[in-house]
Automatic annotation (TrEMBL):
InterPro entries: ClpP/crotonase-like_dom_sf, Enoyl-CoA_hyd/isom_CS, Enoyl-CoA_hydra/iso, Enoyl-CoA_hydra_C
Protein name per UniProt: short-chain-enoyl-CoA hydratase
The organism's place on the tree of life at top rank: Bacteria
UniProt keyword list: Lyase
Biological process (GO), any one: fatty acid beta-oxidation
EC number(s) on file: 4.2.1.150
Keyword Repeat belongs to the record: no
Pathway(s): Lipid metabolism; butanoate metabolism
A molecular function (GO) term: 3-hydroxyacyl-CoA dehydratase activity
Lyase keyword on record: yes
Pfam families linked: ECH_1
């Protein structure tokens, strides 16, 4: 049966997977509600350090067209995925999308709600919505231009054309491209690295980057300076620096 799985791995790494292969992991209300429930769990998990989104074969071929075809305006509002995607984007821990196969429309927007994207060489990414008489409605018109600039975002959104992983890398839509059979392994390697860093510092860095990009440079630098100085109240800062000086590995306590 179609569903969403949340798996706990070592070092506080969590993996969220969509399991609806018969529809190339197209997202319907039920799947998105399940993602929302999993986000509740992730928020409560004090041991969580990094979340990977990864589904077998296809990341997600977009919103379920059959489920929304007959929607009117109110129905479309009720079907919309943004509240859940916004919660995903606001998670305090870093999030990594590991993209194999298709990441289209609402699937691409799901990946855009994460911090980092790793794609397989054979991945196909884009926003086909205009072929359906709509435009991206789960953050695509807002997050894509901020990530890759308005010109590339307009090219993708106006043409509806899916791009290869290589082209997505040139645009900055993904962080890196690896062989298809290495996508999860590479995401896991990166997540492991993140998970072993000072957790308070990583979380606050995410917060400052996300809040700072919505500010002018002066206010952003002020925010950075204040938050940076606060880190010197943490046990992890003492441990990180003492471990460096003593030439040993730090043992962070997340406080
Ligand atoms: N919604 C519903 N069903 C979908 C789907 C989707 N987005 N994408 C694929 N499927 C279903 C197909 O209907 C098909 O089901 P049946 O076997 O029951 O016919 C099954 O998945 C396999 O798909 P195809 O036979 O089409 O596979 P293919 O390899 O020939 O083509 C594809 C793959 C190019 C991805 C094609 O499936 C496709 O174009 N899918 C739609 C992509 C799309 O337009 N996504 C955007 C949706 S709108 C959106 O996301 C709005 C938003 O902003 C939130």
């Amino acid at each position: 049966m179609a569903g969403v799985r949340l798996t706990k791995k070592d070092d506080g790494i969590l993996v969220l997977s969509i399991d609806r292969p018969e529809a190339l992991n197209a997202l319907n209300r039920g799947i998105v509600d399940e993602i929302d429930e999993k986000i509740d769990e992730i928020e409560k998990d004090s041991g969580a350090r990094c979340l990977i989104l990864h589904s077998d074969k296809n990341f997600a071929a977009g919103a379920d067209i059959k489920a929304m075809a007959e929607c009117d305006e109110e129905g479309a509002k009720a079907f919309a995925f943004s509240p859940t995607y916004n919660r995903l984007a606001a998670l305090r821990i870093p999030t990594v999308s590991a993209i194999e196969g298709y990441a289209l429309g609402g699937g691409m927007e799901l990946a855009l709600a994460t911090d980092i994207r790793i794609a397989g060489e054979g991945a196909k990414m884009g926003f086909p919505e205009v072929s359906l008489g709509i435009f991206p409605g789960a953050g695509g018109t807002i997050r894509a231009p901020r990530l890759i600039g308005a010109a590339f975002a307009k090219e993708l959104i106006f043409s509806g054309e899916a791009v290869t992983a290589e082209r997505a890398l040139q645009m900055g839509l993904v962080n890196r491209v690896v062989p298809d059979d290495r996508v999860f392994a590479e995401a896991y390697r990166l997540a492991g690295k993140i998970a072993r860093r000072g957790p308070v510092a990583v979380r606050r860095a995410k917060e400052v980057i996300d809040r700072g990009t919505a500010m002018n440079v002066e206010s952003g630098i002020e925010l950075e300076a204040a938050e940076w100085a606060k880190l010197f109240n943490t046990r992890d800062q003492k441990e990180g620096m003492q471990a460096f000086i003593a030439k040993r590995k730090p043992e962070f306590e997340n406080r």
